Amino acid sequence: MPFGRAEAKTRFLHSDYAVDVASTSNFRHFRVTHYHLDLDFDFEKKEIKGTADLRMTCLQSCSRIILDNHDTVSLGKVTLVPSGRSLPYECHPFSPYGSALHIFLSCQEGDVFTVRIEFVSGRGPSLNWQEPEQTAGKKNPFFYSVGFTTTNRTMFPCCDSPAVKATFSAFIKAPEGFSAVMSAAYREELGGNRFFFKMDHPIPTYLIAIAVGEMASKQIGPRSKVWAEPCMLGIAYAEFSGAVERYIQLGEKLFGPYIWERYDILVMPPSFPFGGMENPCLTFVTPGILVGDRSLL
Fold it and tell me: How do strand 74-81 and strand 112-121 relate by DSSP bridges?
């Protein structure tokens, strides 16, 4: 029998009916298509103050939007953009994963709208504030986020489920002398220690990653940079320069074009407890990979 003609039977996917036990969001009723974050980092208070704009499309008529949140996130006003209409909300217990943010907004199938949420976060398990002693340079603190697998809700309210993929953009305000990087294809330095990021490929929220600290970078290929603390940059450059592009081209021969535009590497402080964190466009790696002969690449 020819291949692919064994049986003409319809097979249904289960993803449209599967329950994500780690998420409280009612993402069957609406879809987040874009997140826009505006975040201000305060290292003295170990706080992130900001807003999250969620652009949504209603899939089924409903009377409320339910998002994943966490008790460590303090919420301010919730409004419709651009009208500024205030939206009432409540937080309900959910599980050790976090809490449920109920925003009361009636919508009909096909409605498109943007909700803005003001918040302050900083103490959640995805947010890592490193003291100077935990860095290679020993002079300045360092921040990084790890949203895997369900913890980016501790940074901002969201649909924290891999079932929901959205694009994102962000303005990041860092302390004087610090840089910021994100898991995004586009990065721009705006002046005044503000940075803009944009990701046009839809991703689940757990892959939105941020690092803020004293960092510098060098080009290691036509679509790659290595980032590191200044005292580690020379060693990191020697380890990665030229090698990353060869691996990307090898992957393209096997699997087709690399669609993510950039593949940058951030060498983390020595206190980073993982071997690596493979975020889109920006992989966090342990400095233990820098052995001088590229044998661990």
Answer: antiparallel
For residue 179, the SS3 value is strand
pLDDT digits (tens, 9 = 90+) for 186-195: 999 999 999 9
DSSP code at position 206? G
Q: Contact 183/265 with Cβ under 8 angstroms?
A: no
Let me know if 83 is exposed, middle or buried by CB neighbors in 10 A (0-12, 13-18, 19+).
exposed
The strand pair at 216-221 and 224-228 is best described as: antiparallel
Residues 13 and 151: beta-carbon distance below 8 Å: no
Q: Tokens standing for 244?
A: 């990353």
pLDDT, one tens digit per residue, over 238-251 is 999 999 999 999 99
Q: pTM for the complete prediction? A: 0.93
Cβ(284)–Cβ(274) below 8 Å: yes
Residue 118 to residue 58: CA distance in whole angstroms: 22
Model confidence at 57: pLDDT above 90: yes
Token digits of residue 256: 């087709």
CATH class of 216-289: alpha beta
Domain boundaries, the chain: 30-213, 216-289
Calpha distance 56→84 (Å, rounded): 16
Does the domain formed by 30-213 have CATH 3.30.930.10?
Answer: no
Predicted confidence band of residue 5 (pLDDT cuts 50, 70, 90): very low
Instruction: Look at residues 226, 219, 198, 243 and name the one whose alpha carbon lies nearest to residue 283.
Output: 226
CA-to-CA distance for 36 and 21, rounded, in angstroms? 26
> Contact at 8 Å (CB) between 228 and 236?
yes
